[in-house]
Write a structure and sequence with these properties.
With 59 residues, the protein is mostly helical. The protein contains three helices and no strands.
């Protein structure tokens, strides 16, 4: 199993999105904002049928 390298990314998000994220956390659907962003990216990649990072890099 390959080790996945991680990098920190800083983003600016509009207040309504942050409030929505905080509601998802308050409702117990996610533990934190980072988890929400990672899930959103997984869903986006799945939508575009990108099953691995190597698939994205080869296109």
């Amino acid at each position: 199993m390959a080790v996945i390298q991680k990098k920190r990314v800083g983003i600016t998000i509009a207040k309504p999105y942050l409030e929505g994220m905080d509601l998802l956390i308050k409702d117990g659907l996610y533990e934190n904002r980072a988890e929400i962003v990672k899930d959103a990216l997984r869903r986006l990649f799945n939508h575009y049928e990108i099953h691995s990072i190597s698939d994205a890099c080869s296109e």
